[in-house]
TrEMBL record:
<feature type="domain" description="Protein Lines N-terminal">
    <location>
        <begin position="179"/>
        <end position="528"/>
    </location>
</feature>
<protein>
    <submittedName>
        <fullName>Lines homolog 1</fullName>
    </submittedName>
</protein>
<feature type="region of interest" description="Disordered">
    <location>
        <begin position="615"/>
        <end position="635"/>
    </location>
</feature>
<feature type="domain" description="Protein Lines C-terminal">
    <location>
        <begin position="654"/>
        <end position="690"/>
    </location>
</feature>
<dbReference type="InterPro" id="IPR029415">
    <property type="entry name" value="Lines_C"/>
</dbReference>
<feature type="compositionally biased region" description="Acidic residues">
    <location>
        <begin position="617"/>
        <end position="627"/>
    </location>
</feature>
<dbReference type="Pfam" id="PF14694">
    <property type="entry name" value="LINES_N"/>
</dbReference>
<dbReference type="InterPro" id="IPR024875">
    <property type="entry name" value="Protein_Lines"/>
</dbReference>
<dbReference type="Pfam" id="PF14695">
    <property type="entry name" value="LINES_C"/>
</dbReference>
<dbReference type="InterPro" id="IPR032794">
    <property type="entry name" value="LINES_N"/>
</dbReference>
Length: 697
């Protein structure tokens, strides 16, 4: 065994260094590989080496045991086979080395019936051997598809045989994993394969996949309060089987989104949408928590049109430009989700403590909301919100109003979050749930804010809507935007980063919200005042004699710019550190103790937050202060002091943030440095800025 091991190890090292072995011919290497795999196949049939889990080591290391055991040899030979195919597929080898290993591959797979041996080994009960063998099989299938545009017949026959009679175990797991891997490889580099390769694969396995899905997933409806069960005594086996199946479903869905063909729509690629109710029943079943979590993450990615995004497939086509069934299928998915919420199945979704160790084996301690699995909370929240959004966009959302209404669904979602440990206060602060749940994930937070805005606008048109009622269920878009600004310390440069980034839907959300803000200015004022009143803390300012005049001048300049359109002149006086505004219109006396939001006092009293990008550092930046209201410069806007007027704190800070944003975008647009035409955006920001100067009614 020692000699054989060292021969194969030398070949493996040569492949990694992109050189061919000099001590043996390609036929000799192929013969050595075939002999080892034949021995493994015989051993695997008798229940091969279970001790491998305690013998892990780096195969490429030079420090091998002088007497390598069978596990090391097995891992080495299977890894070598997989690497030969993957290197030939990627065409990373020199011509001489490539010819050598092509000869090895040809001898193995065309003259020695090597694929049958690997397929047999992939179905053995030893999980490590099975996985390495299925990797070798998949790698060669991809090589044949890319270089010869042919589907390996042995692999195809075995996958079809297993899928037509699925039974949890290594056979099924190997088949679904291999098919997923092959489809992923083709979808990642579609241009490198012959046109129609994906369609050919889907057509081959479509019927078998559909049949396997109906047998593996509980498709029959269960009575309320019952849980789905699976015909297996080994929960771990079913967890592995379902995990592989869910990965395959995501790839199939991603293929549909990516291809967006209007002529052919395969049944298997529609399963995760038209039979989502079956997937939701997995969440009610007695399977591992991570499987339930994977189901909800899959549904979330489908509803966000991001299926396969983490697999490197690139952007998917819009649902509105999909195949003929796309719209009806996504509505079926939305209906299934909303029906589950309506029947109180949402409250049965588990949310465990967040894992703190790599691999997810540890649990965090403590009873705060931070101790809970926010990935799961975000997934559930977005699945519900996006389902509602799709429903209101179809046929005026009549189906939503016929059940429990938008308020009912949002109330159910808030109840779910409260029961899972999210600390939500009653009243207007219920709207802070978006920041609490999505604060760590910008792209998800923007999707949630956009969906809630659309729900609010729809509900406002279809019914008499009061702001207080909307705040109770956490659906007021003004609150969501204010809490977003508070989280970023009202820093306009972070908003600019969001606008420039393509990783979130912030631009779409922001434009929609600005239009709403323009049309509901008084509602925005009211929300600002309510948040100020309910989220109040006192901050005592220690103003040095040196800073008194700067504070007075700055406050006077801002007051004059805000009141210029009314012809109002503001004067200020101070004595002993107290500052009072004198205005022809009655206004409250402003003391050094300012009303600040909870948790913001320290941030406002300190220096401004560091920006991701300094957009004012260009050579001409000092000449661009004219873009801001008269008398206000960038340095003074970011003074350590807080400017205070007769408006609420949140109102002033928000308007100033938007004003600064408008100035920076204008400057970038003027220099052709903005990545897209921002004319419409600037028009909206200018209209908001003009609203600031209008008399308060």
């Amino acid at each position: 065994m020692n000699e054989q091991f060292h021969v194969l190890n030398d070949a493996y090292r040569g492949l990694l260094s992109r050189t061919s072995p000099s001590k043996m011919s390609s036929h000799e290497l192929a013969s050595s590989i075939f002999t080892c795999v034949c021995e493994l196949t015989l051993d695997a049939s008798d229940g091969y080496h279970s001790q491998h889990q305690d013998q892990s080591r780096d195969l490429t290391s030079s420090k091998y045991s002088p007497n390598p055991n069978g596990t090391e040899l097995a891992c080495l030979v299977l890894t070598l086979v997989e690497k030969i195919s993957s290197k030939l597929t990627s065409q990373q080898l020199s011509q001489e080395t490539s010819l050598y290993f092509k000869d090895v591959s040809t001898v193995l797979f065309q003259h020695m019936d090597f694929m049958s041996k690997l397929v047999h080994l992939a179905c053995c009960k030893d999980r490590l051997l099975s996985h390495l063998a299925v990797k070798s099989v998949s790698s060669y299938v991809i090589f044949e598809l890319r270089c010869f545009n042919t589907v390996n017949q042995i692999w195809e026959w075995k996958c079809l045989q297993v899928l037509q009679n699925p039974c949890s175990g290594t056979e099924l797991d190997a088949s679904t994993w291999s098919l997923t891997t092959v489809l992923k490889a083709v979808l990642k580099e579609t241009a490198e394969y012959e046109p129609g390769t994906v369609e050919k694969l889907l057509a081959t396995f479509d019927t078998a996949l559909t049949a396997a899905y109906s047998q593996l997933v509980p498709v029959e409806s269960l009575g309320h309060g019952n849980s789905a069960s699976y015909p297996s005594s080994n929960t771990a086996d079913w967890a592995t089987t379902l995990t592989n199946l869910l990965d395959l479903l995501e790839v199939l869905t991603a293929a549909r989104f990516k291809l967006s063909t209007t002529s052919v729509c395969f049944t298997s690629s529609r399963l995760s949408l038209v039979q989502a109710s079956a997937l939701l029943r997995i969440v009610d079943s007695h399977v591992h928590y991570f499987v339930k979590k994977q189901v909800l993450l899959l549904l979330k990615r489908i509803l966000l049109q991001k299926a396969g995004e983490d697999m490197g497939f690139g952007e998917a086509s819009s649902l509105t430009h999909g195949d003929d069934h796309m719209t009806s299928d996504i509505l079926t998915l939305a209906d299934d989700v909303l029906l589950a919420v309506h029947t109180d199945r949402l409250q049965c979704v588990p949310v465990e403590s967040a894992a703190i160790f790599f691999g997810g084996t540890g649990q965090s301690c403590g009873g705060s909301s931070d101790a809970f699995d926010h990935v799961m909370l975000r997934a559930v929240s977005l699945v519900v919100l996006k389902s509602l959004e799709y429903k209101i966009q179809s046929a005026g959302g009549k189906g939503v109003c016929n059940t429990i209404g938008i308020h009912g669904y949002l109330s159910a979602l808030l109840l779910f979050l409260r029961q899972r440990g999210v600390q939500l206060k009653q009243g207007s602060h219920s709207c802070c749930w978006v920041s609490l749940v999505f604060g760590e994930q910008d792209d998800d937070m923007m999707e949630a804010a956009k969906a809630l805005l659309l729900l609010y606008l729809h509900h406002r048109v279809s019914s008499d809507l009061e702001a207080d009622a909307v705040c109770v269920v956490g659906g007021n878009p003004h609150c969501h935007f204010l809490f977003l600004l508070r989280n970023i310390s009202f820093d306009h440069s972070i908003l600019l980063d969001f606008l420039i980034s393509t990783e979130t839907c912030f631009l779409e959300y922001f434009v929609r919200y600005l239009k709403h803000l323009r049309d509901d200015w008084e509602g925005f004022r009211t929300v600002c005042q309510k948040i100020d009143g309910s989220d109040r803390c006192k901050l005592s300012w220690k103003i040095s004699q040196k800073d008194d005049q700067l504070l007075d001048n700055l406050r006077e300049e801002l007051q004059q710019s805000l009141c210029a359109s009314r012809g109002i002149v503001s004067t200020s006086s101070h004595s002993g550190g107290s500052v009072t505004f004198v205005d022809p219109e009655p206004a409250p006396c402003l003391q050094p103790s300012l009303c600040l939001p909870s948790g913001s006092a320290t941030a406002l009293a300190s220096t401004p937050p560091l920006r991701l990008v300094d957009y004012g550092s260009s050579e001409e930046s000092e000449t661009e202060d004219g873009d801001l209201p008269s008398g206000l410069t960038q340095d003074r806007l970011h003074s350590d002091s807080v400017v205070h007027t007769h408006n609420s704190h949140y109102f002033d800070r928000t308007v100033m943030c938007l004003t600064e944003l408008r100035a920076v975008v204008t400057r970038l647009q003027r220099r052709s440095l903005f990545p897209y035409n921002a004319t419409s955006l600037l028009k909206l920001l200018t209209q908001i800025e003009a609203k600031r100067c209008c008399p308060q009614r």
